């Protein structure tokens, strides 16, 4: 599908610290009626692409979208937590995004969250020696004082860092380097583990180790997929009898179910603590790809053990192999029922994340 966009230019001059675009609600209504997918507001400092119904817009109102890219003042820095101060200690500029709805009577209401995620694109030039794949976007959570990873991705073709968000605040573009004591630089999986950690898609055990040979549960892998695809988390229509809503993985598993990435076992359960099998990983990732999955039949597989691949997974395995996500184990066997390791999971998620990027 070719995405249709209405592009609005609101570029800053060299003397402007903040760029603001004011868009009548009637324009969004016309965009929606015209089957245009998104409105892109390009300020020069950043570009914001929104769906026409991303927030509530009363009749006669105006939507204000603004971006301020500057070094923080001393007073602004004082309000940051210690972790946040470390990121701006070198004088790095912070992107402060704001959205508001101005009523017909002139009353301004700041919008703190959106119904639909916004695509944000920020021009960026990597520094000498900076690994482009480790560049991401970090969010300054003003409520908790924490720094949260927004899973930004640098696009060398456009020279921009892109991410999705359902809320506005202060953000900073930065490469993140994390070293694990049990991941050697020469390991075949080192690159995949390090890059995905820089994005916040995977993490270690909190003690400086990744445990690459450890097994991966179905809940853990579903969480990785949900983060890599940047699914919207929150209210879900999906339910599983063995997925407690208070579990740390619940919002990710349910979001993946809403997105048709997972469907659970035939008895309706999900088995969150079961170790995920190699064939199950293929099914989840091919489901996540949707229309982007390669069109290939299971009959194309030449693995010696292809008859041991579950019938429900045969096509997904063929597509995952064709997409380059996964391969056999070296003796022309696929080993579909083997439990995946954390190193294997990081590799396949990395290849999925950068697929067609």
Topology:
Elements lengths: L4 E5 L8 E7 H9 L4 E5 L4 E4 L11 E9 L3 H5 L3 H7 L5 E9 L5 E3 L2 E11 L11 E6 L6 E3 L3 E3 L4 E8 L2 E6 L14 H10 L18 H11 L21 H9 L19 H12 L24 H9 L19 H12 L4
Helix pairs in contact: 4-9, 5-6, 5-9, 7-8
Summarize the structure.
Helix 4 crosses helix 9, helix 5 packs across helix 6 (250-258) and helix 7 (278-289) packs across helix 8 (314-322). The chain has nine helices and 13 strands. The protein has helices at 25-33, 74-78, 82-88, 190-199, 218-228, 250-258, 278-289, 314-322, 342-353; strands at residues 5-9, 18-24, 38-42, 47-50, 62-70, 94-102, 108-110, 113-123, 135-140, 147-149, 153-155, 160-167, 170-175.
Indicate the proportion of strand residues.
15-25%
Structural class of the helices, strands and pairings?
alpha+beta
Which descriptor suits the 3D outline?
A: globular
**What's the order of the H and E elements?**
EEHEEEHHEEEEEEEEHHHHHH
Main beta sheet:
7 strands, antiparallel
> What oligomerization state is this entry in?
single chain
Mean pLDDT: 92
How large is the count of helical segments? Answer: 9
Low-confidence stretches: none
Radius of gyration: 22 Å
Distance between the termini: 16 Å
Count of β-strands = 13
